[in-house]
Amino acid sequence: MSAPEQTSILSNRPKYELSDIFREYGRSFEAGNSLAKRQHQVLFDIQHCRTQTFGYHADVCDTCNHVDTAYNSCRNRHCNKCQGINRRKWVNERLKHLLPVSYHHAVFTLPHYLFPLIRFNQRIIYTLLFDSAAETLMNFGKDPKWLGAEIGFFGILHTWSQTLWQHPHVHFIVTAGGLTNDGQWIEPKYNSRFLFPVRALSKVFRGKFVQGLKATYDQGDLILPDGLKSLKHRENFERWIDGLVNRNWVVFNKAPFAGPEKVVKYIGRYTHRVAISNHRILAVEDKGIRFAYKDYKDRAKIKEMTLQPDEFIKRFLWHVLPRRFHKIRHYGFLSNGQCNKKVAQIRRLLKAPGNKKTEKNLPEGVECPVCGEGVLVPSFIINRFGLVVMNRLRIERRKSAVFVT
Q1: CA distances from 281 to 2, 225, 305 (A)
Q2: What is the fold of 99-275+319-354?
Q3: What ranges do the domains of the chain cover?
Q4: Rounded to whole angstroms, how far apart are CA atoms 27 and 274?
Q5: DSSP string, 297-350
Q6: Is the pTM of this model over 0.90?
Q7: Other beta carbons within 10 Å of 248
Q8: Which of the two residues, 404 and 191, has the higher pLDDT score?
Q9: Could you report the per-residue pLDDT of 246-298, keeping only the tens digit for each?
């Protein structure tokens, strides 16, 4: 495939959407497969997203007063059309905590060996992935050999590969430096090359994860699928663990970002991403769903894959997260509860009040299609039951009446 063809696949307005696939094949898939309640909900929500099923709303431009009416979004976090506003709000919060320091990007990945277990123990395995990786980074940060300070970082869970296969991994954005016990800021010794050595990170990460998995097994909390029922016997489980330990535990550490602006662009792309975007869907037919993907084993070339509709939907639903599971988590001095205080302390130490350019908020709404300058602000919302859940116009009238009185 030539370069222009590769560009056109991913840059043009999408001809097909995930909702098209679910509307066409979702009902037959549900009839032939046993699904969890949350998976049924995802199928329903995405099928009916931005249709009369969820009601409608009217938005008014805050600059030119243009009125725009549209059906409501489903707001399901697995819907690839509903993440824009949540992403902008989250990024705006991160802008408040950006520091004038380098940031590193580390990725912790689980071996494919775990996949049969993950499907029935998502909450346990994904939490263990977060905890083991985060503890590893914290321990290396506190080790005087590497830094000797408390680092700040946040992690973003992705569970898919480009072909929708299971590929659970966490992207961590880590500050190049940290706060010492006596409240001083310290830079890493090898800032220009790497933050911590990846081989050592991998070994410690593996050890922590395996230890946590054994503890979960001992507590009887693991659900063993039919293919792993033999693991109920301790001897078989220990042999299975030996096989897990011998697998390749990948920890990847990229070069530092080129300034806070690059961090903002990165997190803006990755935080609220779902398993596949509409732009990657090339054809929706009975003979198969054809989509584009990057083959990272072949220099990230863009290729095409075709899956039968049932196989495509099955793979997508693998990545539906447990209810109320937090896919973005904060650690170290960026953890909730102490973040504002410690970021202010670090800025005083660095004598840097903040970069105004990077702290300029992104609009938390849709850009006005008429003037291109304003943002469409919700004026009233009618929900799926026909009830008015918000009426800004009525509120404004009340405010004006109180002021006049």
Answers
A1: 18, 32, 10
A2: Replication Protein E1; Chain: A, (3.40.1310)
A3: 3-80+375-404, 99-275+319-354
A4: 22
A5: GGTTEEEEEEE-HHHHHHHHHTTPPPTT--SEEEEETTSTTTHHHHHHHHHHHH
A6: no
A7: 10
A8: 191
A9: 998 989 887 777 777 677 777 777 778 899 999 999 999 999 999 999 998 89
